[in-house]
Amino acid sequence: MSLLEQINRKRREIKTDGYPMSIGEWVSMYERHELDIHPEFQRFYRWTSAQKAALIESILLGIPLPQIFVSQRQDGVWDVVDGLQRLSTIFQFMGLLRDDTGKRMEPLTLEGTKYLPGLRGIQWDNEEDPKKSLPKELQLLIKRSKIAASIVLKESDESAKYDLFQRLNTGGSELSPQEVRNCLLLMVNRSFFEWLKELPKFDPFIATTALSDRPLEEAYDVELALRFVVLAQIPEEDIKSIGDVGAFLTDRMSEVAQDKKFRRAGAKQLFEDTFSVLNDVLEDEAFKRYSMKKKKHEGGFLLSMFEVVALGVAYNLANDTLCPNNEIAKRARSVWSTAAFTDWATSGVTASRRLPRLIPLGRKLFAA
Predict the structure, then answer these.
(1) What is the per-residue pLDDT for 328?
(2) What pLDDT is attached to residue 241?
């Protein structure tokens, strides 16, 4: 198929429309439940109060805002694909924003901005102190201001909105790769997302990974759980063709989430069995560097050790070929004197080159 044919084919799969809409129209759609801004995404976004005030300042000064990307569902409701924080800020300022339980959130009180320091302390409507309310003529100015909508129509290929979300919310984004995946997963299969995020709450997993606050804030524990689910029993021929690991995890996550044959109970049991064993024999040293000279573990969590130890133990548990428990700690430490591990576990080696070597190494290492 020629490049032109590929382009024409894909263009036919994605049907779009677009037109300017007043903020008042956006508000009406939200209040009629015709617009889903996915309030559960809020925890993945970290706009400051200064950024929120700057958005309101831009509207009041007549500065054009970027278009909002939405995807039309089969029921006609619009899913917000890009523009969540802008709309959320506007709705919160107006006192309309609801959390994921449907409860109204505390209305936004503005900070003073560079060009409009008088916004400090202003609310949309403050009944107790009318002087702190935004004047009616400015409320109307905001409601009549326009933000363009770019719509991926429901006739489009079903995967289009997920691809669009990923493209618009990576690169320059404040979200970690797993936070973007979590947002994608919520659109693909909310139930699977809820299931996946519960896995890393298992106490032996928490104990063995011993992650610091920053990785936890960026959903790295959920990424490790996803890596486990996707890679623990992956066929070896598939390991060699992983390529870009981030893209691979995202694609496989979407496939598994939509696979009606995927057995969540079995995957959860393997996860819990694996980390229970590792917690019993290595505790919080399971995924740390081991100094052969000092005869002790050092440092923090290492992904390369997770790929060898957790995935190796899991594979053999699943196939009933795991070595005796009293051998696991000794074998895990032995990799630090093995070139097959140390040559590929350094920070300069990409994951696409590392995984095809470390996953098979772990499977052999912990076999009976």
Answers:
(1) 96
(2) 82
Cα–Cα separations (whole angstroms), residue 121 to 5, 105, 366: 57, 17, 62
Number of residues assigned to the chain: 368
pLDDT of residue 10: 61
Q: How far apart are CA 12 and CA 19, in angstroms?
A: 20
pTM of the shown model: 0.70
Task: For residue 126, give Cα distances in angstroms to 141, 281, 308, 334.
Answer: 18, 60, 58, 66
Scan for tokens 């066929």, then name that residue.
235
For residue 164, the surrounding DSSP H or E stretch is helix 160-168
Determine the 3-state secondary structure of 218 from DSSP: coil
Q: Helix or strand or coil: residue 100? A: coil
DSSP string, 170-190: SSS-SS-HHHHHHHHHHHH-H
CB contact set of 171 (below 8 Å; sequence gap of 6+): none
Please count the helices (runs of H) and the strands (runs of E) in the chain.
19, 7
The Cα-based distances of 348 to 81, 297, 342, 344 in angstroms read 35, 22, 12, 9
Q: Given the DSSP bridges, would you call strands 35-36 and 289-291 parallel, antiparallel or unpaired?
A: unpaired
Amino acid (1-letter code) at residue 27: V
Any idea what DSSP says for residue 123? B
> 10-residue block means of pLDDT along the chain (368 residues)?
67 70 96 84 71 95 90 84 88 91 91 94 92 95 94 61 61 65 78 94 97 89 96 90 85 90 96 98 95 91 95 97 96 92 81 89 96
Phi, psi of 133 (to 5 degrees): -90, 145
Three-state DSSP class for residue 183: helix
